[in-house]
């Protein structure tokens, strides 16, 4: 019998044997199935405490898979890597960890295997633990309490940890769960079984299950910051921090994607960009990761970019752009530029600050105190002749934006599946950062040609609508005047190189512009008129009222809705084949609902048409 359940043990064994057998075929050796089974059983028992005694049935399950593995011998390395990632992800998940296909240990396994012969497989599989170890794997309870300025309560004997987690839903293996005093989800903490877990808290009276080890600290945020700083001091790789008024999430993802086949890479996930996210990633990233890429944000009243930078201590800091995003909380665009420059406050002594060389606002900001001292670390990217990395040529096709550029004295070309002049500049910033990381820029450029655009950030979709093709340019995730105009230009460039007939738009009102709200909404309507839209769907309460005279005079068809839910049916009934639809708004306007609704509506209509 298998101690942790027959299915679980067999799946882990299958994943390992598959990896071992594939390794033997790839390296040209004659690794026998019996040898693979022996190695797999030994590894499972040593690493996970599972004694596998029944394997004959599992071996039969492998027979068809092995034929497939043989066929991979001469396939692309990418195919081999994908297979290995899947197998290792399965093993890790069943072992109680939370690894994903993009995390460092999968890449470490691949890198180690493809450089070594099959006879060393067992040692390599065990060595993956070294690549996957975070700072918590090296800390005993006493040292952890010392670092966090806390004290253990209710801990009987030593407790070890794999990860620090902020939500009970992420509990896997043995974790240190953070329970904040003001957490709205405290009931979930108490309801979750806490076997194999401990809790870091500044509220020991919250009523946690009896016997749960508690690390009691004075303030949770301070203790998390102290632990993150400790992890950063012991990390071996390079750190990249990205901020900006637009494009930072996509730039972060593109850097990670461009490096992913050359180095072990970690990154902040999604669009999360706060102090706690930076700390979470820092503490939980394997110490042997080659490059870690962080997104740093600036919300209303400050998300403390300088605090995030002090934790990350980046070797490369990037400011993608400066625009009046969140200007209502900062008063002026010049003040926003100064806040963004805080990304450099934790810059490594041998680091670089990448800025938009075409932006006069950021250029003026770095010429004033206290930022004047940054002059010697600045790398400029853009179109201007004085830029260190410079766009030589660019053009938009239906496949994306073609770019020819000088990247720190090297000429490169690439096509990215994003549209417009501003994305050519963002791609240049990405290649410059990759070059400064010491990686192959040409290989990264090739890799980025297949970059998957993030949801709601300039995605171009084609839907088979009634009597033609509906194009959708979906950039619903965020909108400030700068990103709005840039995406309108990109949309217009896409329109010019396609055969769509009408331009139509779903637009959400701006947020967080303070006293500038009226001026920018008038400006927005003027832009929509100038770009030749034939029909508009405007979502907001009263923000567009000031622009109604200009809109009425233009004779453009328009519809007003307080929420997008009110307008979905109207939008769906108005669109036609050969329309190109532009979607743009702040994330809170829920314009993320538009594209899925259109897909569902069109699919239903097509099905009914086929059945008629």
Automatic annotation (TrEMBL):
It comes from the Bacteria. Residues 242-433 form the Mur ligase central domain. One of its GO terms (molecular function) is acid-amino acid ligase activity. SUPFAM superfamilies: MurD-like peptide ligases, catalytic domain, MurD-like peptide ligases, peptide-binding domain. It holds the Pfam family Mur_ligase_M. It comes from Lamprobacter modestohalophilus. PANTHER family: UDP-N-ACETYLMURAMOYL-TRIPEPTIDE--D-ALANYL-D-ALANINE LIGASE (PTHR43024:SF1). Keywords: ATP-binding, Ligase, Nucleotide-binding. This is Mur ligase central domain-containing protein.
């Amino acid at each position: 019998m298998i101690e942790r359940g027959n299915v679980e043990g067999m799946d882990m064994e299958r994943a390992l044997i598959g990896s071992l057998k594939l390794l033997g075929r790839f390296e040209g050796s004659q690794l026998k199935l019996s040898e693979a089974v022996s190695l797999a059983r030994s590894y499972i028992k040593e690493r996970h405490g599972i004694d596998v005694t029944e394997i004959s049935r599992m071996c039969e399950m492998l027979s068809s898979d092995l034929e497939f593995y043989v066929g991979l011998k001469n396939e692309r390395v990418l195919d081999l890597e994908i297979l290995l990632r899947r197998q290792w992800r399965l093993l890790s998940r069943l072992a109680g960890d939370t690894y994903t296909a993009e995390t460092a240990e999968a890449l470490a396994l691949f890198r180690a295997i493809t450089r070594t012969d099959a006879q060393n497989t067992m040692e390599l599989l065990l060595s993956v633990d070294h690549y996957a170890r975070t700072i918590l794997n090296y800390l005993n309870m006493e040292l952890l309490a010392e670092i966090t300025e806390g004290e253990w309560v209710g801990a009987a004997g030593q407790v070890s940890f794999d990860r620090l987690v902020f939500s009970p839903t992420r509990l896997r293996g043995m974790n240190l769960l953070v329970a904040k005093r003001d957490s709205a989800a405290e009931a979930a903490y108490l309801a979750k079984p806490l076997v194999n877990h401990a809790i870091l808290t500044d509220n020991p009276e919250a009523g946690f299950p009896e016997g749960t080890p508690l690390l009691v600290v004075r303030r949770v945020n301070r203790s998390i910051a102290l632990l993150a700083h400790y992890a950063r001091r012991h990390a071996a790789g390079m750190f990249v921090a990205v901020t900006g008024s637009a494009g930072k999430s996509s730039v972060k993802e593109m850097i990670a994607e461009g490096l992913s086949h050359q180095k072990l890479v970690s990154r902040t996930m999604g669009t999360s960009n706060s102090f706690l996210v930076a700390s979470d990633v820092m503490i939980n990233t394997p110490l042997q990761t080659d490059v870690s890429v962080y997104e740093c944000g600036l919300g209303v009243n400050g998300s403390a970019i300088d605090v995030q930078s002090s934790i990350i201590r980046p070797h490369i800091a990037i400011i993608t752009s400066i625009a009046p995003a969140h200007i209502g909380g900062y008063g002026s665009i010049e003040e926003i530029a100064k806040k963004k420059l805080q990304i450099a406050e934790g810059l490594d002594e041998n680091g670089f600050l990448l800025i938009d060389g075409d932006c006069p606002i950021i250029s003026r900001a770095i010429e004033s105190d206290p930022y004047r001292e940054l002059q010697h670390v600045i790398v400029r990217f853009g179109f201007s002749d004085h830029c260190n990395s410079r766009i030589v040529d660019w053009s938009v096709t239906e496949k994306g934006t073609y770019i020819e550029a000088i990247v720190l004295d090297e000429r490169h070309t690439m096509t990215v599946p994003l549209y417009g002049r501003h994305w050519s500049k963002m791609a240049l910033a990405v290649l410059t950062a990759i070059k400064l990381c010491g990686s192959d820029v040409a290989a990264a450029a090739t890799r980025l040609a297949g970059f998957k655009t993030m949801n709601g950030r300039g995605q171009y979709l084609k839907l088979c609508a009634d009597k033609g093709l509906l194009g959708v340019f979906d950039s619903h995730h965020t909108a400030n005047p700068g990103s709005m105009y840039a995406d309108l230009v990109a949309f217009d460039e896409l329109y010019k190189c396609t055969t769509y007939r009408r331009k139509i738009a779903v637009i959400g009102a701006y947020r967080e512009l303070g006293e500038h709200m009226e001026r920018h909404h008038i400006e927005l309507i003027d832009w929509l008129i100038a770009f030749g839209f034939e029909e508009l769907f405007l979502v907001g309460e009263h923000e567009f009222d000031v622009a109604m005279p200009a809109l009425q005079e233009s004779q453009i068809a328009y519809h007003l809705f307080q929420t997008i839910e009110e307008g979905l049916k109207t939008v769906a009934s108005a669109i036609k084949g050969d329309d190109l639809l532009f979607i743009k708004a702040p994330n809170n306007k829920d314009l993320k609902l538009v594209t899925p609704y259109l897909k569902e509506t069109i699919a239903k209509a097509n099905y009914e048409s086929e059945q008629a």
